Amino acid sequence: MDTILEIEGLTKVYPSGLTALDGVDLTIRRGEIFALLGPNGAGKTTLIGAVCGIVRATGGNIRAFGHDLRTDWRSARRRIGLVPQELGFDMFDTVERQVAYSRGLFGCAPNAARIEEVLRSLSLWDKRREQIRALSGGMKRRVLIAKALSHDPELLFLDEPTAGVDVELRRDMWRQIGVLREQGVTVILTTHYIEEAEEMADRVGVIDKGRLLLVDDKAAIMARLGRTEARFRLAQPLAAVPHSLCAYSLHLEDDGRTLVYRGGNGAGQGKAEVAAIAQALSREDIPFMALDQIESSLEDIFVNLVEDGVA
User: Fold this and answer.
1) pLDDT score, position 311
2) H or E stretch including 229?
3) Which CATH code is given to the segment(s) 3-223?
């Protein structure tokens, strides 16, 4: 798959001494949806700002579409769209004029048919003549996306696009992102809603304190870092884990009444070991009344990475 964006050793240190980006290396493939996860203040927005020319990096290199953004930023920037976190409009202008104006800012010729297509795709056509100040918060967020799509970008940044919107609107936006993928648009999504990454992303990156802790395919992350937890509620308490089960990651809780397993990976090893433990308990004539089993989610993995600070 072609590379559309290359970031090498990107750093940003503010005059106050705050390090917002700390040697970030990242490669984005053409046509993928990449989710960048991180807590508030992790560096997500700073990274986007550096690529879009809003933030001046302290060090490192950025290449987009083969162009060095330090020396040839105009050629690359017109092919990049950005949906920022903050609402930025002339609140007294109409929806249609604001979107058309954004298209012109990137040197694109007026195209009423394209503007109509974008507005209809976001359920904004009926609102096209309304002043933006009269719109709901969710509709204003849709206008931000329309402005970003008006010049037909090949690479689209969505910075917390569903922050503060209701579940129905969030689902609508997810569907719109799916349409963009079908059209060949590369999407980089920053979010702290883990379900968004699980729903849409091909690959996931985790950033914290300006450092990328992990970048990998979503399935590979689950296989490598996913875990299984199983709790066997025993009919009678045990004084110790049976010797025949010492090969497994087991310990006793609740005064010996609960046998707890934690281990495996997202590729199925944990499930297989839980089944083997159940069979071993049966052979040892150790009855259990219930078995509760939980597979770790992408959110669990994310939380563990941020807490540990390492992949």
Assistant:
1) 47
2) strand 228-234
3) 3.40.50.300
